[in-house]
Design goal:
By secondary structure, the chain is α/β, with parallel strands linked by helices. Helix content is 34%, strand content 23%. Strands 1, 2, 3, 7, 8, 9, 10, 20 and 21 form a nine-stranded mixed beta sheet that branches. Strands 11, 13, 14, 15, 16, 17 and 18 form a seven-stranded mixed beta sheet that branches. Strands 4-6-5 form a three-stranded antiparallel beta sheet. A hairpin with a 5-residue loop joins strand 20 (409-411) and strand 21. Helix 1 packs parallel to helix 5, helix 1 (25-36) runs parallel beside helix 14 (443-468) and helix 4 (95-116) packs across helix 14 (443-468). This is Fumarate reductase flavoprotein subunit. InterPro entries: FAD-dep_OxRdtase_2_FAD-bd, FAD-oxidoreductase_2, FAD/NAD-bd_sf, Succ_DH/fumarate_Rdtase_cat_sf. GO terms for molecular function: oxidoreductase activity.
Length: 469
């Protein structure tokens, strides 16, 4: 349904200076930013309640040099953050694009806190893989559901119109210039809404199986843990308008989704000293490399299943996250006082798990590196009571997308901006490169927040120029 229709002769029911497609974090932040710049804004959301992929995430946003870091005594800055992003993605991302979001995200969080009362704090008790500083910021529940709820509340309080159950099925354009959108309602009725500027904040293509098979074939049969509405509309519209795209195979996977509960289990269970074993009770990888690339590794195990094994000390850290508390409440987290007893609950070979954990203890005691390349130096031993969660690998969201400039304007194949089209979040090319291993924790919400604010401000300016001509 991602069509481009000619605008010539079309009568719009009404016209709004800035239209935002998508009511997740990127869309809500873009709407707030455009509204602050004096533009009338309409957010169009296909669901009955704006949630998007944001609600399914842990709601953690990496940001350098914030006041919360300074209060916690954490030294950090945009240059250091940018270096971490580029190192994780092996130099693939555009350095200018990385610098843009690394500089913008901290001020954006402080703006959301000061202007709209979002009570952020920094996660200061563990470090995510690939980050050289503790820079993850979240709300009290450490959940994406709280993040989107608070953003939605801020948009409502600002008096910004949000139209739900409004599925945008086509764009109207004169050449590369967008003139409006076609909105299809649940009863099949259609409305045509004109706009002077359009922000695409409807994420990537993770919910479009055909596009996933084309661009990320290794996860074609994986559990999709993103929003089903992520059908690649922004990508397809942009391409039809002549937009440049980049790193379409880039994506965020996750190797720790509780199965069959379908709940994200924080990667702190691994980074704080836990390990993953397969259904034979054996380790199969360097789990500490990162949760994104671990998705495909887990899926290559028998039945596409692994167990994350940790202890009560690590569980106590994980309980700061709402998702983990839910997993415990559902009985997805098993517990026992010995590896053999834990194995019996897991219904795997007790001798194999006991031997595996004994080898891990030996490596930790000696500060050794295992055959997979995981360095256990400084890692605390696992001690009773032990914990385990049955997990699978999943696709969360895609990271490639439309190429944008410093104002989040969508660029064509020659690097020229399309007249009035902007992209943020998963609709825009992210900073993870072309591979799952390039994903640095938080890169998804990084571009949602940073580019969302940039796009909203720039769209308001473009709308003023458009209407003054």
């Amino acid at each position: 349904m991602s069509r481009i229709l000619p605008a010539d002769g079309v009568e719009f029911e009404f016209t709004v200076p800035v239209v935002v497609i998508g009511g997740g974090a990127a869309g809500m932040i873009a709407a707030l930013a455009a509204h602050e710049r004096g533009a009338e804004v309409l957010v169009l959301e296909r669901d009955a309640l704006p949630q998007g992929s944001t609600a399914l995430s842990a709601g953690l946003i990496p940001a350098p040099g914030t006041r919360w870091q300074r209060e916690a005594g954490i030294a950090d800055g945009p240059e250091r953050f940018a270096a971490d992003i580029i190192a994780k993605a092996k130099g693939e991302p555009d350095p200018a694009e990385v610098a843009r979001v690394a500089r913008a995200v901290g001020p954006a969080l402080e703006w959301l806190a000061d202007r709209y009362g979002l009570p952020f704090s920094v996660v200061d008790n563990f470090t995510y893989p690939g980050h050289s500083a503790r820079r993850m910021h979240g709300l009290p529940s450490r959940s994406g559901a709280e993040l989107i709820d608070r953003l939605r509340g801020a948009v409502e309080a600002a008096g910004i119109d949000v139209l739900c159950e409004a599925h945008v099925t086509a764009l109207y354009a004169d050449g590369p210039r967008v003139r409006g959108v076609e909105v299809t309602r649940p009863d099949g009725s259609v409305e045509r809404v004109g706009c002077a500027a359009l922000v695409l904040a409807c994420n990537g293509y993770g919910g479009n199986k055909a596009l996933v098979e084309r661009h990320v074939p290794e996860l074609a049969d994986a559990l999709y843990f993103g929003h089903p509405g992520n059908q690649g509309d922004a990508l397809l519209w942009g391409q039809a308008l002549g937009a440049a795209t980049r790193h379409l195979s880039g994506h965020q996977g996750h190797g720790s989704v509780a199965h069959p509960a379908g709940i994200l289990v924080t990667w702190a269970t691994v980074t704080e000293g836990g390990v993953q074993v397969n259904t034979e009770g054996k380790r199969f990888s360097n789990e500490a490399q990162g949760y994104s690339e671990q998705a495909a590794v887990v899926l290559r195990q028998p039945q596409g299943i692994a167990w994350t094994v940790f202890d009560e000390r690590i569980a106590a850290i994980a309980r700061q996250f709402e998702d983990f508390r839910q997993a415990e409440a559902m009985g997805a987290v098993l517990g026992a006082d010995t590896p053999a007893d834990l194995a019996r609950l897991m219904k795997i070979d007790a001798d194999a798990l006991t031997a595996t954990l004994a080898e891990v203890d030996r490596l930790k005691a000696g500060g050794g590196t295992d055959g997979f390349g995981r360095d256990f130096a400084g890692s605390a031993p696992l001690v009773p009571p032990y914990r385990a969660v049955r997990v699978t690998g999943a696709l969360f969201h895609t990271q490639g997308g439309l190429v944008v400039d410093d104002d989040a304007r969508v660029l064509d194949g020659q690097g020229r901006p399309l007249p009035n089209l902007f992209a943020a979040g998963g609709a825009a090319c992210g900073v993870s490169g072309s591979k799952a291993s390039g994903y640095l924790s938080g890169n998804g919400l990084l571009t949602a927040v940073a580019l969302g604010r940039i796009a909203g401000m720039a769209a308001a300016g473009a709308a003023r120029e458009e209407t003054s001509q």
